[in-house]
Amino acid sequence: MKLFVVLCAIIAHGLAASLPNVQITTFRESVRASAYNSLSAKAPLVGRIANGQPANENQIPYQVAVLSPIGHVFSICGGSIISTGWVLTAAHCTDGYSQHNLRFGTITSTIGGQVQTAFESIIHPEYNRDNKNFDISIIPIPTPLVLTAAIQVIRLPTNRQISSTFADVSAVVSGWGSTYNGGGASQILNWAEMRVIRNSECADFFGNTVVVDHVLCAVGSGGPTQGHCGGDSGGPLTIVEAGVRTQIGVVSFGAAAGCNNPYPSGYMRTSNFIHWINEKTSIPIRP
């Protein structure tokens, strides 16, 4: 799985008091096919969202494992079911890959559930590999899903929420990524509670060329080192509205200093892309 990370200059006492000189780099977590296949024979591994909790069966039924092979290597990402025919993920998870193995309906990334293979994806036309702006992509599901307790669609934001900052709202991020910087992919889905912060606060760390209007940032509710990590890219950030889960973000980037450091996590702001998603998928836009 891939997670793109942002190099940020932090002043000596550790506070981001002024805009840093931001550099963007990629951190792609990949495994060889032989190593990946052997995971299913091992004892279950702990969940890998940094300082999070393991998910229960059917707790996060909209989560998708996205495995994209090149030769004998798999890139591992997360994604979400936004309709019975489409998966939402990050552009850097599909950019350069022609095949995506999609696993639905399971909390393990290697066994169980339902697997379909897609040979195409649609990357946002303004995706920028340098600063990760417009880091969003959709993958068509070859055979429409049959919804069950383990396979469910996540709701997208409304048209009215395009202008919402979601600041200080409690959210949940989920994925099969590492529990620490440089750690390996996990077999078990994990989740963590986050708090959305204002873009102005996030830009203090990453700068205004990275933290643009369609970016959303969050910090761990359970502590400053809680959040997504290497391998969680493309996964969903969700909130609860009137008892229903809504996806407000797509995991995009984090600080190169590592996911065990107290820096915000970066997401694509889903509400800013609902019209593009509608144009490509015909998924209705809620008022």
Automatic annotation (TrEMBL):
<keyword id="KW-1015">Disulfide bond</keyword>
<keyword id="KW-0645">Protease</keyword>
<keyword id="KW-0732">Signal</keyword>
<comment type="similarity">
    <text>Belongs to the peptidase S1 family. CLIP subfamily.</text>
</comment>
<feature type="signal peptide">
    <location>
        <begin position="1"/>
        <end position="16"/>
    </location>
</feature>
<feature type="domain" description="Peptidase S1">
    <location>
        <begin position="49"/>
        <end position="282"/>
    </location>
</feature>
<dbReference type="InterPro" id="IPR001254">
    <property type="entry name" value="Trypsin_dom"/>
</dbReference>
<keyword id="KW-0378">Hydrolase</keyword>
<dbReference type="InterPro" id="IPR018114">
    <property type="entry name" value="TRYPSIN_HIS"/>
</dbReference>
<dbReference type="InterPro" id="IPR043504">
    <property type="entry name" value="Peptidase_S1_PA_chymotrypsin"/>
</dbReference>
<protein>
    <submittedName>
        <fullName>Serine protease 2</fullName>
    </submittedName>
</protein>
<dbReference type="InterPro" id="IPR001314">
    <property type="entry name" value="Peptidase_S1A"/>
</dbReference>
<dbReference type="InterPro" id="IPR050430">
    <property type="entry name" value="Peptidase_S1"/>
</dbReference>
<dbReference type="GO" id="GO:0006508">
    <property type="term" value="P:proteolysis"/>
</dbReference>
<keyword id="KW-0222">Digestion</keyword>
<dbReference type="GO" id="GO:0004252">
    <property type="term" value="F:serine-type endopeptidase activity"/>
</dbReference>
<dbReference type="InterPro" id="IPR033116">
    <property type="entry name" value="TRYPSIN_SER"/>
</dbReference>
<keyword id="KW-0720">Serine protease</keyword>
<dbReference type="GO" id="GO:0007586">
    <property type="term" value="P:digestion"/>
</dbReference>
<dbReference type="Pfam" id="PF00089">
    <property type="entry name" value="Trypsin"/>
</dbReference>
<dbReference type="InterPro" id="IPR009003">
    <property type="entry name" value="Peptidase_S1_PA"/>
</dbReference>
